[in-house]
Amino acid sequence: MDYIKKLSRFIVPYKRYAVLNIICNVFYALFSTMAMLSLMPMINVLFGESEKVFAKPVYNGLNEIKDYSENYLNYIVTTTTATDGPQRALLYMIVLIISLFLLKNLFNYLALFFITFLRNGVLRDLRDEIYNKVVTLPISYYSEKKKGDIIARISGDVNEVKNSMLSVLELIVKEPLTIVFAIVAMFMISVKLTIFVFIFIPVAGFIISRIGKSLKRKSDKVQKEQGIFLSTLEETLGGLKVIKGFNAEKRFYSKFQESTNRFYNFSNTLMNRQNLASPTSEFLGIATIAALLWYGGNMVMVEQTLSGGSFIAYMALSYQILTPAKAISKASYQVKSGNAAAERVLDILETESSLDDQPNAKSKEDFKTNISLNNVSFKYEADFVLKNFSIEVPKGKSVALVGQSGSGKSTIANLVTRFYDVNEGSITIDGENIKNITKHSLRRLMGLVTQDSILFNESIKNNILLGKENATDTEIIDALKIANAWEFVKDLPNGIDTNIGDSGNKLSGGQKQRLSIARAVLKNPPIMILDEATSALDTESEKLVQDALENMMKNRTSIVIAHRLSTIQNADQIVVMQKGEIAEQGTHADLIAKNGVYRKLVDMQSFD
């Protein structure tokens, strides 16, 4: 139940609905009991057992409310029977019963009506907060997590938590109150019979609690397995070309089937344990009723200490306890299974981001002098991928980073944009450590074009507008022209309003990359980071993209990570990297003249 306290802040905005639900449930419990009690005078009228009361009773306070209520009903029955006959008295009793059952069901509906706003509001706010957390957590968090597992938490687990929190409201208000009112009424009818009933309640409670002990563990297995098969599905959709190309459909199907089989088995165990709650509680309830019939029947027929009408009403009240008792046992199971789901949800919500802005972080509005990496060392896991790395990128200059795969080039892009933090050393902009600058203002100064063109299943316009939300169509077209993309966009059926499909798959690689460049052009940042922006392209597309990049980089500070050396020959400085360190640096001409590592790389690529 600890998670209820942690998640209670999601209930606070909807507390008025919770209060109205509680009020309605109080009335529901009250009228439920009164509806059962109203059976007593009706049966007494039917069998002529009503006590004759000719004088109107006087109300003497709550201490004598039971006697007053009985005497008043008997007075109405007596006077009505005397003046209008027993049929009229019976009609009044039926109207009373119908009215009480109507009120009971009305308040039950109102309780459910108000709780709907609470449960759906909590569901919405929980999902919103988890999504916000998902986009604010550092990229390193997702290198350890499966995407499908995150999807499972934001969909299935959150829904489980919502149902569980709703069950708690029933556990603490509606059902317990129904039981309490019924027991009070039962004591009023017969103390002796009620004490007899209480002998059976602890036994039933013990049996039901034994059933529910392992539910949390079993529920946790179900939810984890759901994350696994959703991850397999997500990976399948992302790599469908490779799967088909390598005829690996059966292999992935087997992997998915293994997961769904485990899910099937875990779910069966969990559901069968949950399903055991209702028949068990009902059987125990019926056993209690049977004992009541035997013991209470003796009181009516042998001892004659209880009237027939009172006994029937008592039996109805006893059975009324069964329904909320079953609901409580079911709700307690939901709370236990919700506990496992809540732990998975809280695991995301309570994850601290190592990249949160410092309390006194500044907002940087412009770029004035240089970007500097000062003795930077960094590791993703055990081994350092950068060691005492230092470079300076003056404003308006372009610095290219080249070297073999794994030399640490892309890591520098990740560190400058602060997707990761350095382990040692510092990165400064205009002399200010980027850790002291808000991430939002830092990234506002930068444009990023990556090797993988990350586009979204929307129109070209909406993809480009990520660079500048309030841009006009004219500005978008100008950016497309600079990126050499307008030549193909203008021929599309709906121009910039054409939908480009999932990940832009309706376009070629070169077209996607030029749209990525147009997005960066529209943003118009003072610093541009190009992470192998042309390495995945064919020669013709590369020429168009390279022209677009050169258009964009004019008078702009650029860090260019390149695999193809032909694309960076005009850079102001080229840094050649080997195993996280600088092997040599200088202009293209200087490095060729040195006849070192760079010259070897150029000679190797001259045959490409």
Automatic annotation (TrEMBL):
Q: Where in the cell is it found?
A: Cell membrane
Q: For the ABC transmembrane type-1 domain, which residue ranges apply?
A: 19-337
Matches recorded under Gene3D superfamilies: ABC transporter type 1, transmembrane domain, P-loop containing nucleotide triphosphate hydrolases
Matching InterPro entries: AAA+_ATPase, ABC1_TM_dom, ABC1_TM_sf, ABC_transporter-like_ATP-bd, ABC_transporter-like_CS, P-loop_NTPase, Type_1_exporter
Segments traversing the membrane: 20-43, 89-118
- Domain (ABC transporter): residue spans on this chain: 371-604
Q: Name one GO molecular function term.
A: ATP binding
Query: Topologically, how does it sit relative to the membrane?
Result: Multi-pass membrane protein
Under the heading PROSITE patterns, the entry gives: ABC_TM1F (PS50929), ABC_TRANSPORTER_1 (PS00211), ABC_TRANSPORTER_2 (PS50893)
SUPFAM superfamilies linked? ABC transporter transmembrane region, P-loop containing nucleoside triphosphate hydrolases
- Where is this protein chiefly located? membrane
Q: Please give the superkingdom of this protein's source.
A: Bacteria
Q: Which keywords are on file for this protein? A: ATP-binding, Membrane, Nucleotide-binding, Transmembrane, Transmembrane helix
Matches recorded under SMART domains: AAA
User: What is the protein named?
Assistant: ABC transporter ATP-binding protein
Name the species this protein comes from: Winogradskyella bathintestinalis
